[in-house]
Amino acid sequence: MFSIDAPVEIQNSEYCNYRSPLSTRYASKEMQYNFSDQKKFSTWRKLWIYLAKAEKELGLDITDDQIAELEAAIHDIDFEAAAAHEKKVRHDVMAHVHTLAERCPKAAPIIHLGATSCYVGDNTDLIVLRHGLDLLLPRLGAIISQLSKFADEYKSLPMLGFTHLQPAQLTTVGKRASLWLSDLLMDERALSRARDDLRFRGVKGTTGTQASFLQLFKGDNDKVRALDQRVAELAGFNKRYIVTGQTYSRKVDLEVISALSGLGATVHKMCSDIRLLASRKELEEPFEASQIGSSAMPYKRNPMRSERCCALARHLITLHANAANTHAVQWLERTLDDSANRRITLAEGFLTADATLLTLLNICQGLVVYPKVIARHIAQELPFMATENIIMAMVQAGGDRQVCHEKIRVLSHEAGAQVKQHGKDNDLIERVKKDSYFAPIISQLDKILDASTFIGRAPEQVTEFIEEEVNPIIAKYKHALAEVGKPVSLLI
């Protein structure tokens, strides 16, 4: 019943264990490392060094040799020994305290001095979250930069606008892209705010009162406060949470995940739009020369990158409720309801966001526009849109508005029947030309039907938007764009 049906000789293979597709297929090496065991436990060791250094500076009996021994062991982690210790003591932090003590016998007496598990656990999480955002934000900046170029290039190319998924008035390809850009700018602000709001938990003790450190420094409040501040500085934080329970508030996680979830909503909307436009053959994501769209239908050009973005984005969106519920069930100074959940949610949130942005950047670097298809679709709808302009031109030529309106109404219904009932092209303009009533304005019809006269201020809006709102954000990441803006080659 509980057997493994693979041959015994391969049961220990990595392929006989579950492997997250976020690691094997989608996320970057950098983001995977950020949530790796090596990063986590080496950061624990750095935090023990920061604590020892600060305690030494404030007068505790800690030697330079002890600190040097710890520094030499930052990345030299015996994971098998740690696993054996954890199996015995059922406590991950104490397992790594014992493992480090075995590696650093001189420093063993001062490792974790005065601290509780959340000193290394929570502070490491905050370091990892901040670095995760530092990885995501430049990627988002590269997408904004790429999409801005696209919007500017196509800001004057008319295309059908849609409301209720029905043809409405015209917009432009670039104007539609600017709507995606606008949402991405909101995400950049949300992620930047979440990043800048992160503080260090510091040294707070078991329930956040710093009682153990006050005892360690014989009741000296100033030294405890100085210790808290100094450790934060050594960890690279200029702000710390002054009040905490045993943990920093899980509301912090919620704010970070909320920003990631909002990014997911943006990407899903944008890539859904791309998929809809691809179905109309107006816009297409990159398609490799050897790419296969369907095993059964060789002609297919499926928008699989956009579909992947939507799939990942949906997962990202759902994590918001998870983080909210985790914060909600933290009773009093803390419960352990958060632990197992956060091990999954925080890593998956960042790995999913990373994979989504990598895929979206690949899409934005190779978007293809088909102007002739767009023009054909406009031609099918523009005659109906132009009816009011035709009526106004006839009135200016001396016609009666009501008479003209009725004639246009009848001709429009006849043309509509040709389209819907007979599957033919829209022939409204041909019918207008054949009706002698409209003879006074026949020479004006080409001008009346010029699609560029139906796009309003769309090109000017795009230019204004890019100059005033987009370019300052691109400038913010200009030093990183040379690297993160390189052509993205997806693994799969």
UniProtKB/TrEMBL annotation:
<comment type="similarity">
    <text>Belongs to the lyase 1 family. Adenylosuccinate lyase subfamily.</text>
</comment>
<keyword id="KW-0658">Purine biosynthesis</keyword>
<dbReference type="InterPro" id="IPR004769">
    <property type="entry name" value="Pur_lyase"/>
</dbReference>
<comment type="pathway">
    <text>Purine metabolism; AMP biosynthesis via de novo pathway; AMP from IMP: step 2/2.</text>
</comment>
<dbReference type="GO" id="GO:0044208">
    <property type="term" value="P:'de novo' AMP biosynthetic process"/>
</dbReference>
<keyword id="KW-0456">Lyase</keyword>
<dbReference type="Pfam" id="PF00206">
    <property type="entry name" value="Lyase_1"/>
</dbReference>
<feature type="domain" description="Adenylosuccinate lyase C-terminal">
    <location>
        <begin position="382"/>
        <end position="466"/>
    </location>
</feature>
<dbReference type="InterPro" id="IPR000362">
    <property type="entry name" value="Fumarate_lyase_fam"/>
</dbReference>
<dbReference type="GO" id="GO:0004018">
    <property type="term" value="F:N6-(1,2-dicarboxyethyl)AMP AMP-lyase (fumarate-forming) activity"/>
</dbReference>
<dbReference type="GO" id="GO:0005829">
    <property type="term" value="C:cytosol"/>
</dbReference>
<dbReference type="InterPro" id="IPR019468">
    <property type="entry name" value="AdenyloSucc_lyase_C"/>
</dbReference>
<protein>
    <recommendedName>
        <fullName>Adenylosuccinate lyase</fullName>
        <ecNumber>4.3.2.2</ecNumber>
    </recommendedName>
</protein>
<dbReference type="InterPro" id="IPR020557">
    <property type="entry name" value="Fumarate_lyase_CS"/>
</dbReference>
<dbReference type="Pfam" id="PF10397">
    <property type="entry name" value="ADSL_C"/>
</dbReference>
<dbReference type="InterPro" id="IPR008948">
    <property type="entry name" value="L-Aspartase-like"/>
</dbReference>
<comment type="pathway">
    <text>Purine metabolism; IMP biosynthesis via de novo pathway; 5-amino-1-(5-phospho-D-ribosyl)imidazole-4-carboxamide from 5-amino-1-(5-phospho-D-ribosyl)imidazole-4-carboxylate: step 2/2.</text>
</comment>
<dbReference type="GO" id="GO:0070626">
    <property type="term" value="F:(S)-2-(5-amino-1-(5-phospho-D-ribosyl)imidazole-4-carboxamido) succinate lyase (fumarate-forming) activity"/>
</dbReference>
<dbReference type="InterPro" id="IPR022761">
    <property type="entry name" value="Fumarate_lyase_N"/>
</dbReference>
<comment type="function">
    <text>Catalyzes two non-sequential steps in de novo AMP synthesis: converts (S)-2-(5-amino-1-(5-phospho-D-ribosyl)imidazole-4-carboxamido)succinate (SAICAR) to fumarate plus 5-amino-1-(5-phospho-D-ribosyl)imidazole-4-carboxamide, and thereby also contributes to de novo IMP synthesis, and converts succinyladenosine monophosphate (SAMP) to AMP and fumarate.</text>
</comment>
<comment type="subunit">
    <text>Homotetramer. Residues from neighboring subunits contribute catalytic and substrate-binding residues to each active site.</text>
</comment>
